[in-house]
Amino acid sequence: MYTKQDLLNQLAKMGIDPRGTLKVHLSYKAIGEVEGRGDAVLDALMEYMEPGLLVLPSHTWDRDIVNDKNPVMDVLHTQSCVGALTEMFRKRPGVCRSLHSSHSVAAFGVGAEEFVSGEERIASPCGVEGAYYKLWERNAQILLIGVNFSRNTFIHGCEEWDGAEGSLSPDKRDRYVINQEGYRLYTPQHYHIARLGSETFVKLEAPALSQGILAMGAFGDAAARLMRAAPLRKMIAGFLQDDARYLLRY
User: Fold this and answer.
1) Hey, is 2 helix, strand or coil?
2) Is there a contact between 49 and 109 (Cβ–Cβ < 8 Å)?
3) Cβ contact 135:155 at 8 Å
4) DSSP 61-127
5) What pLDDT score was predicted for residue 193?
6) Which of 32, 120, 146, 199 could form a cystine bridge with 222, CB 3.0-4.6 A?
7) What is the DSSP letter of 130?
8) pLDDT tens, 194-232?
9) What average pLDDT does the structure give for the chain?
């Protein structure tokens, strides 16, 4: 069984900068048994990143949560659809959640409120000036714990920014966000075209490893994949420049 200190030691061993920005996608099940369970996992991540900024997804794109019949995301009450730990995290004191109807993020630490601000003006899942774009601007660290590149939402941002074909719908759906003060905002959205979804993203792992962009580590029992946003985007942009449909195929 792992302790919180064990997890802190593993984060340090990976060389994660606690004063930077860290975006985490994780599978709680893959981590294994931890003393204190999910709360201890979050405690470790938040304690380690206290001098910097910790960001987790709090997405609501699941059809059973926000959809055409229920097109409203309430920032305080709509549950995250990407894992129990993300739902626990967004409810913790000091955590700020962005006003995005499908791809909100939750952030804790230095500048968290500023980081999540403005997403109500973004008309796509990972649009320019939104939270995922800010990850690129900061050259943030991206950590995948127990999941592979198919869960790396930042790559959807690269699709949007660098000319990938077939990733976004040409039309918009009516969507609304209820903010912290209870006001309802109209936030119409382009949406991801399903097809292969993000499953093709796994083919980026081998070149990312060979180019030194991706490093492997461990967090509990889980394999951990660590990378920086800027070189990852640069690599993907090169593939898309050669073939705008690159991410539509395995």
Assistant:
1) strand
2) yes
3) no
4) -STTTS-SSS-EEETTTSPPSS-HHHHHHHTSTT-EE---TTT-EEEEETTHHHHHTTGGG--STT-
5) 83
6) 146
7) S
8) 666 789 999 999 999 999 999 999 999 999 999 999 999
9) 96
Report residue 167's pLDDT band, with 50, 70 and 90 as the boundaries.
confident
Global pTM reads: 0.97
Q: What pLDDT shows up at residue 250?
A: 85
H and E: helices and strands count for the chain: 9, 10
**Segments of the chain assigned E as strands:** 21-26, 53-57, 72-74, 96-97, 105-109, 141-145, 176-178, 184-186, 214-219, 222-228
Specify the 3-state DSSP secondary structure of 175.
coil
Dihedral angle of Cα 199, 200, 206, 208, to the nearest 10 degrees:
-90
Q: Kindly give, in sequence order, each residue whose CB lies less than 8 Å from that of residue 29, ignoring residues fewer than 6 positions away.
A: 146
Residue 132: what residue type? Y
| Phi, psi (rounded to 5 degrees) for 24 | -120, 130
How much of the chain exceeds pLDDT 70, in percent? 99
Pairing mode, if any, of strands 21-26 and 141-145? parallel
Query: Sign of dihedral through CA atoms 89, 92, 98, 102?
Result: positive
Q: For tokens 């292969």, what's the residue?
A: 196
User: Quick check: 101 and 177 in contact, CB under 8 A?
Assistant: yes
What token pair was written down for 66? 């926000």
